[in-house]
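Case study.
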Amino acid sequence: MEQYSGNPAKAAALVESNQVHRDVYVSQDIYKLEMRHVFNNAWVFVGHESQTPEKGDYFATQIGDQPVIQVRHKADEIHVLYNRCPHKGTKIVIDRQGNTGKFFRCPYHAWSFKTDGCLLAIPLKKGYEGTGLKQTASGNGMKSVGAVKNYRGFIFTRLAQDGISFEDFFGDSLSSIDNMVDRSPEGRLEVVGSPLRYLHHCNWKMLVENQTDTCHPMVAHESSAGTAVKLYEELNLPEGAPKPAAMEIIAPFMSPYEFFEGMGIRTWPNGHGHTGVNHSIHSNYSAIPDYFEAMTKSYGEDKAKAILDENRHNTVYFPNIMVKGPIQQLRVFIPLAADKTIVESYIYRLVGAPDELTARTAMYNRMINASTSIVGHDDLEMYERAQEGLLVDGMEWVNIQRLLEEDENFDEVSVHNGTTERQMRNQFNAWAKFMTYDAAKTETAE
Amino acid sequence: MTVSKDQLIDFIYDEVRMLDEGRYDDWLALWLPDGMYWMPLEYKQEDPINQTSLLYEDMFMLKLRVERLNGVRTFSQKPKSRCHHVIQRPFVDEVNGDRFVTNTSMHYVETRLDEQQLLALTARHDLALVDGTLRIAAKRVDILNSDAAFRNIQLLP
Ligand code: FES
Ligand SMILES: [Fe+2]
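After joint prediction, the assembly is written out as follows.
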């Protein structure tokens, strides 16, 4: 296998306008470069503010391969710190969430740190007198990430100290998060319970690409959605009888190609994009009593209608999350290795809206995103077969040219036929950009 | 008592044997039409509706699962998974007229291709005696490490 370490330009050359080389999925070398360049320079999702509502509340996760802690330092201030003791490296917290009180205390030698990371105390401190501890990185406490942004409750970080601003990175794509939050009559979301955690033996990018792959549902999910439709027809229920819940959630996956073509795909700069410009599989959910009234009361009828008429399906935020506005879900694809990805699927409650909406998103989550979900089984099977199939030598390129146009310009926002693979190309364009981001920075500096 | 303790215990043994032998039509026939199968996501979870679970399924979903296992285009079951339960003698926790509650510890093994996974779990059965036959009114399966990251769990513990 090729060597790429220290050579991100060679890695970026694995992306061509209509295809990508299999090494982007199978090479552990590439994985390491992605962690150092893409996940270091992009704005990456950490968690939701409601996961750490009180002072001292923390939540431990990872950004790429970097363990971090999201912690509430002040009522209106959330920090993101690396989960590593500056003394000898011990992870400061090991549970996924909790409250640390006024400070973190390392369990090994009891160095302690304020919740913004500053060094608070060291036992037997005089042992360091005159040793120049202050001049070392260890003497400054827990390391902070480069930048943190709380966007309407969603916490993002850029690990790198300098680089692209949050606004420039996301641009208009934030409209999908806006729509999800606006669906709360109070404009506020709250996380509900723990996320589903689903382990896949495949590359993280396969999962991200699949979020806008509109040519697979009616094929790969025929076994679940197709069987659901068949069983429903056999029930022969009288006109107007309530449908089984599964029919509302799973059956739309069997929609024909024309449906997905018409739904449309929009791409934004820096690798973001979404399906469901015109309609989506979420469009025909039954109305929930009292919800529209609550929305009208908050926003007025016109704006309430505009918010609820937006039926975006999956919005991909490069590099590794997907948001479903109409049902308040967020999935994060955490890369553990070239061939190992953990998917965490969160649901949120629309503050001020009826509980039935929470029940619907909880149902969607377990039916579609769980390791026990039949729809999940369909997908995982495809990813893992691809991960293994890609090892074939002599045929090393993955094709992504459905509805390819000449000289595609990913720096502009554009809308296309819903079965285009343009969003996948858009992601790889951003991937190549961020893989070579540091090299480009050095060149400009010279 | 209308049903003996032994009959309740035998019922649980018979049920897992049906699952292990893939006799799903017999298994579905054990259920009352409004039965619900629940597998919580969180340790000691109380609410199946307004938060995420691994499973919370009515008869339509359970039938769909069973039907899907044999579908010609069910690629994740080519080849098929197999499962195996080792169960401890069930506790009979409640006897209430025609309603009964049992609690059973199990080790559940599921395998496909070269992989095999072991889950430790506790199953609570709500059983009802209907027309002289024991039926499942509800089943709750708590996986010991339900909050861990799993790969596929394709069959039913
Ligand atoms: S490793 Fe943390 S105090 Fe020593
Ligand atoms: Fe899928």
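Observations recorded in class. Chain B touches chain A at residues 39, 41-42, 45, 49-56, 58, 60-61, 63-65, 67-68, 71, 73-77, 147-154 (CB under 8 Å). The longest strand of chain B covers residues 115-130. We will return to this complex in the next lecture.
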